[in-house]
Amino acid sequence: MTAQIRPDLESIPAYTPGRSNPGAVKLASNETTIGPLPAAAKAIAEAAELANRYPDNQSTELRTALAEFLGVGFDNVAVGCGSVALCQELVQITCSSPSDEVLFAWRSFEAYPIVTKVGNATAVQVPLTAGQVHDLDALAAAVSERTKLIFVCNPNNPTGTAVGRTELIRFLDAVPAHVLVVLDEAYYEYVRLTDHPDGVEIGRTRPNVVVLRTFSKAYGLAGLRVGYAVGDPAVITALLKVHIPFSVSRLAQAAAIASLEARHELLDRTDLLVVERERVRDALVAAGYPVPPSEANFVWLPLGARSAEFGEASAAAGVLVRPYGTDGVRVTIGDPHENDLFLSFAAEPEVLARFLG
């Protein structure tokens, strides 16, 4: 006889990372091709010398640095093993039974339905608009007496689309104060909207709003796993209670602190990526692909049922991209020569005829 496992786990899919293949250009995961900032790399090397010691479980120095950087109190900040760990912890602190509901747009970050089910809650998915953007009116209308938590991925992964500050505030005004709204801003540094939504500023006067950001994307620390939450002290205190002890390593904390101190170097990197993002999108649109505007470090090709086939064809051409079921394909922005290789494949006459014909 084997140990008894929760029977509902059979219905929970494992998280699927982007493919890797030696020799292929990898545009399947939302990583930056540029390594950590030099100061962060130095901090990692120094911290490694103390790897025999446990990290600070409270991440005190990092939380202090984040509080100063964001202009909030120390008790407004929690740190996690990437923002995805914080997503799961937020479900844990708000939901206690299958009757509790977690709302989110779909398609959106694929971890949302997973962490919801792991947290023994019920996922409620609200379709995106035809333009691949969050339908905030529909999301607000889906709130019921069972709703405990709402994830708003802005910019949205995998479509790259974003809603502006005005629209976001209107949505938050329509959500009951007892429902926790999570503004997942993993791609915040890449946003160039005129009506720029800053979740931290928006949430200052809204105790039911918590903001998630990460060092995995623009800061180039994806391999170290460190993200953070900004919210009301009551929410932060609850997160600390379900935090897995020592899950944010000494190296991660040191690298994040150093990255914050050297953040002035980050702007040039993100500006260059945004320029490249627009170049790639313009080329795809000119070729006939219906690519929505992106505010992240990737673009989205809504290819429907042909998504998997497109992904395999791209892989055969030496470029790994990320198909999502029968919805579309996400293509991360890489170095210019990597993007050129993908664009060369995508613009081939036979490829256009096969996937756009």
Walk me through the structure:
The mean pLDDT is 95. The protein has a 7-stranded mixed beta sheet, with helices on both faces. Helix content is 38%, strand content 15%. The protein is globular. The protein has 357 residues and is of the alpha/beta class. It has helices at 38-48, 60-70, 82-94, 111-118, 136-141, 165-174, 199-203, 233-242, 250-261, 266-287, 307-316, 336-346, 349-356; strands at residues 25-26, 77-80, 101-106, 122-127, 147-153, 180-184, 209-214, 227-230, 298-301, 319-320, 322-324, 328-332.
Can you tag this structure with a few keywords?
357 residues, alpha/beta, seven-stranded mixed beta sheet, three-stranded antiparallel beta sheet, 13 helices
Helix proportion: 25-40%
Task: Count helical runs.
Answer: 13
**Strand residues, percent:** 15-25%
Strands ordered across the widest β-sheet: 2-8-7-6-5-3-4
Model regions low in confidence, pLDDT < 50 over at least 5 residues: none
Q: Biggest sheet: strands, sense, closure?
A: 7 strands, mixed
Compute the average pLDDT. Answer: 95
From the N-terminal CA to the C-terminal CA, the straight-line distance is 55 Å
Cα-based radius of gyration, to the nearest Å:
20 Å
Structural class: alpha/beta
Shape: globular
Number of strands: 12
What is the ordering of alpha helices and beta strands? Answer: EHHEHEHEHEHEHEEHHHEHEEEHH
